[in-house]
Amino acid sequence: MRRPAWGPTVQVGLVAFGISALAQGVAQRLDIVHAFWDAQAHLDIARRLHDATTPGLQMLGTVWLPIPHLLLFPFTLVDAWWWSGLAGGLVGMLATTGLAIALHDLVARRTGRQGWGWFAALLAILTPSYLYLQTTAMTEPVLLAFLTGAVALLDRWLADRAQGRALLGAGILTALAVGSRYDGWFFAACAGLTVLAVARDLRPALRFAWPVAVMALAWLAYNAAYFGDPLEFQRGVWSAQAQQQALAAQGLLPDRGNLPGAVASYLGAAGLTLGWVTLGVGMLAILFVAMHRLSGTAAVLLMASALPFNLLALVLGQSVISLPWDEPPGVANLRYGVMLLPAVVTALALAGAALAERWGRRGTLLAMAVVVAVQAGLTVAGGVPAIGALREGLAIRDGDPAQMRASRWLATHWDRGRILVAPAVNISPRTRIPLKDRVYPWTWQLGEAALANPAEAVDWVVVDWRATSDPVAQAMADRPAFRQRFARVFADRELEIWRRR
């Protein structure tokens, strides 16, 4: 009996998973999966749900939304996957598979051509910045998978209002996006208003919105229960708002209240992340799709909500992007540009399919091939600086190589005991030091005890004398008893590791 052939969904998923796995292997070999300090923090947050002095849900914290960490959690239970960062890569593989399947489904259905679906899916997951990000524990790929999946299901409902399950599925995926990054909150509002405007009936809108409402209320309740303020994530001491206020005091929010500057910053980040040719032709394709009201226009515009969200965040001073040509120059948050990727590749595919009917298939395919080839050539010629997300990650990793070398040293020399860590120092999962053995100034009752009498509370101390306001540096400075009880075993610049004698 002849076995049934695998369908296009399975084929696309397998190819996407294979590409993602290959990229993970390369990233591991090049030692770049831990380049973003945030990626290391995401791994640690997931791990500390069970590996902490006081394990539990409260260890999710309130700075970042919980869904990416809950997805990472089961993979971080395997020590080697946590140490190596593979836990983040496995989540990235699943996200990439979901992203590719959603893009293929949407485009193939709207164009009636499997080939255009493959074009959109492959162009997205082979974009170098995205390909790198999904090898790490960063949250952008997770959000893109949920948002694109939600749009694909919502588009099914837009094409056939009888598909109530698709609408509910879109609501569930949107809720997961709301629990992943704050970009998802803006998208949820746009998608909900779209459903209400199209249906002109509250029932479909509520069918879509109730999972989103549950997720948002759960997050507010979590903040209230564990931190005493339902809006702790917005106005707490560790919130993005608090960080932006510190930057504003230093004059480092040039786009606040400056819409033209915000447009230049975000499109600059998108150009460095997606590639200038891809971005330029993709934006023209979005305009073409919108102006001609092609099949799938609503889906493209919903995906493009990343643009107004990021502009709004920049203008309100809730976000910052630094570009290499700014004054002062920088490479901060270039990865935000990758959020335009689904809209760009979907618009390119839909516009290409429409133009193929006008110009002929051969001419359109040739034009698309030229665009892809030129962008690929520019990326290869530009090297790392042309891959915005990787450029940002390496700038962070190499910005303070002493911290990276300290983590590598600890990976081979730490053998036992608790370690007091200065807040200014980033300790990588590669050190293999259990989180329950890491003590920070704010750690339950241990932090205060370690600062007061380190010899009685910890076996190791990591101190960065450059950070003069750091509580560990302040506690250990000019303290003869500390130097009598501890021996310096590592020093790189002014970052030192001391071990109890």
The overall pLDDT, averaged over residues, is 94
SSE pattern, N- to C-terminal: HHHHHHHHHHHHHHHHHHHHHEEHHEHHEE
Unreliable stretches, pLDDT < 50, 5 or more residues?
Answer: none
- Total of DSSP H or I helical runs spanning 4+ residues: 25
End-to-end separation: 73 Å
Beta-strand content bin: under 5%
The portion of residues assigned to helices is 55-70%
How many strands, which pairing sense, and closed or not: the largest β-sheet? 5 strands, mixed
Main-sheet strand order equals 2-1-3-5-4
Tell me the structural class.
mainly alpha
Strands, count = 5
Bulk shape: globular
Cα radius of gyration in angstroms: 24 Å
Question: How do the helices and strands line up, and which of them pair or pack?
Answer:
Blueprint: H1 8-30, H2 37-47, H3 67-76, H4 79-84, H5 86-111, H6 114-125, H7 128-133, H8 140-159, H9 164-178, H10 183-199, H11 202-227, H12 232-235, H13 240-249, H14 259-274, H15 276-292, H16 297-303, H17 306-315, H18 341-359, H19 361-382, H20 388-399, H21 401-413, E1 419-421, E2 438-439, H22 446-452, H23 454-457, E3 460-464, H24 471-476, H25 480-485, E4 486-492, E5 495-500
Parallel strand pairs: 1-2, 1-3
Antiparallel strand pairs: 3-5, 4-5
Detailed description of the structure:
This protein is mainly α and 501 residues long. The protein has 25 helices and 5 strands. It has helices spanning 8-30, 37-47, 67-76, 79-84, 86-111, 114-125, 128-133, 140-159, 164-178, 183-199, 202-227, 232-235, 240-249, 259-274, 276-292, 297-303, 306-315, 341-359, 361-382, 388-399, 401-413, 446-452, 454-457, 471-476, 480-485, and strands spanning 419-421, 438-439, 460-464, 486-492, 495-500. A 5-stranded mixed sheet has the order 2-1-3-5-4. Helix 1 (8-30) packs antiparallel against helix 5 (86-111), helix 10 (183-199) packs antiparallel against helix 11 (202-227) and helix 15 (276-292) crosses helix 18. The N and C termini lie far apart (73 Å).
